[in-house]
Amino acid sequence: MRMKYLQDKQYNVISLDDFYHHKQEQNFPDDAVVITIDDGFYSTLKVANDVLAKYNLPSTLYLTSYYCDKDCPIFMLAAQYMFYKSNNNADLSALNIQGVTGGISDENLNNIIKHGSKFKTEEERIDLLKALAELLNIDYFALNSERLLNLIKFEEIDQLVNKGMDIQLHTHRHTFPENEDAAIEEIEKNRAKIDPYLPKTQTHFCYPSGVWSENHWPVFEKTGVKTATTCEPRLIYYDTPNYSLDRILDGSNLAQIEYEAEVSGFVEFIRKLRGK
Ligand SMILES: [Zn+2]
User: What ranges do the domains of the chain cover?
Assistant: First the structure.
């Protein structure tokens, strides 16, 4: 429905590279839109890839790479999902995790996530998820095979590229440390992992979880990154800094009329009035 709307209303959907060149030259086409997708969940391949191809719309996926060769759901999301889905209020003390006692509670979920995040290997986290799934009466194997919370695999990248999707940087571990060397390592490792599957080197970046700071900008100069995208809800102007490109976040929480109001610029107009 969203993509059809862009086509029906004759928005100029352009690639991120074209956007960058137009911005440098200060000659955006009328009603220009760039479509970007974060993370690389399996649904990007299963659903978005065909829809975008059907309407012949260019898009960019910011792909975080750690989970692309793990064949398991993202640990934190899987733990949250199980807590949310379970109707089996089992005693979780059986997991033998400090601070975890009794049944489903926010505190237990947080302690389990904290505990699992400290593991050195993903295998340990998978074992923890399996134990948790058993206690909460969730089918871990079904969850993993449906790939609801899994990322695409490296070998699947070409299916996206072949249909016109551009793949760019989103860090390796979905974290962007304040420390410069650690931040550079996150970009370089992300790039090293995905570059072998891509036709050209990656020069666009998206801040994980939308957390950004100007302190990071020297990191981009050093790693050959030309643009960085935030989750600040605003349209982009010629004077918007290339390292804090704003975005309208679309999702199932946004009604079609809200989406249309955002894309048309009406909400931007309201935001400006409010700002004044
Ligand atoms: Zn992300």
Answer: 2-68+150-275, 73-146
